[in-house]
Amino acid sequence: METDPPFHEFYKSLFNKNMEEKTPQTINKSDKELVIVEECELPLIDLSRLYLSEPERTECKADIARASQEWGFFQVVNHGISPEILEKMRSEQERVFKQPFDRKTKEYRYLNFSAGSYRWGTPSATSLGQLSWSEAFHIPLSDISRSGGFDTLRTTMEHFAATVSDLAQTLAEILGEKMGHKSTFFQESCLPSTCYLRLNRYPPCPLPLEVFGLTPHTDSDFLTILHQDQVGGLQLVKDGRWIAVKPNPEALIINIGDLFQAWSNGVYKSVRHRVIANPLVERFSTAYFFCPSYDTVIESCREPAVYRKFSFREYRQQIHEDVQKLGTKIGLPRFRV
């Protein structure tokens, strides 16, 4: 039975529209021209330095804050998650995604996940440029402990999530401290019940020049922690141009989300990023989203404030409305003072 989502069938009108709008000249041009994006390595931070002498700890924290300001992205090694768990996570993802598509749409019941956990494509897309050629299980951490089938997937996710949750708290507290705020805000606001795991698969795509694996976006959380395989495809904006992130098998990727940009009054940067579709090879990744409760109020920690106060619920509702009306997220510009 077919395991990939039925992209061609479901989005047939978009494919037809795309062909109708093309001339033979533009078809030949798109076939021949590739967008060349420079590959680079993200700032690499060795977290073992946090457990050394005070000068080493101070320097490590400064490196984390600097990368969050200048890049909005960095990668960490010696992060506390064993290679065995990361490899197990990858193999368990492959196993669950290899289920027949018809079963995956009902898999959340079998796994005791919330309805809507399994997602694919972009239902709101009005053009191929808005279509994400990917599928995912978007899982609240509270769902993991009560999940049913695929016991090894559940235990692997539990182990991964527990360690990554601690890492996210550590990084958030460091970033808060570097802004002059030592508080329990993140411990009180970002709980296991409010954070998420997202298991991603990017199937081979026949139109990699016209369809993204994941469309350009920013993340609507405080922090995202990502483990990706070695296929590559993640790209981000730096100094006004797209750059490709070189995979590092030993590293986790950290990126700043919209909420941290708003909370830091624009000091830490939530950067647009995307995943390029691959015509030949499938890609897997696991993302952890460090989110507060919906009632949490996000307020700039410095004056004059760049962004007005808003709750996470209000932010999510605004994003939903924009996507429904416009086909895309607007995000923080909606909340500028």
UniProtKB/TrEMBL annotation:
Organism: Morella rubra
Gene Ontology terms: biological process: gibberellin metabolic process
Cross-referenced InterPro entries: DIOX_N (IPR026992), IPNS-like_FE2OG_OXY (IPR044861), IPNS-like_sf (IPR027443), Iron_ascorbate_oxido_reductase (IPR050231), Oxoglu/Fe-dep_dioxygenase_dom (IPR005123)
Reaction(s) catalysed (UniProt annotation): gibberellin A1 + 2-oxoglutarate + O2 = gibberellin A8 + succinate + CO2
Name the UniProt record assigns to this protein: gibberellin 2beta-dioxygenase
E.C. number: 1.14.11.13
Classification via Pfam families: 2OG-FeII_Oxy, DIOX_N
Record has Flavoprotein as a keyword: no
PROSITE patterns per the UniProt record, alphabetical: FE2OG_OXY
Family: Belongs to the iron/ascorbate-dependent oxidoreductase family. GA2OX subfamily.
Keywords: Dioxygenase, Iron, Metal-binding, Oxidoreductase
Single GO molecular function: metal ion binding
Record domain Fe2OG dioxygenase: where: 193-292
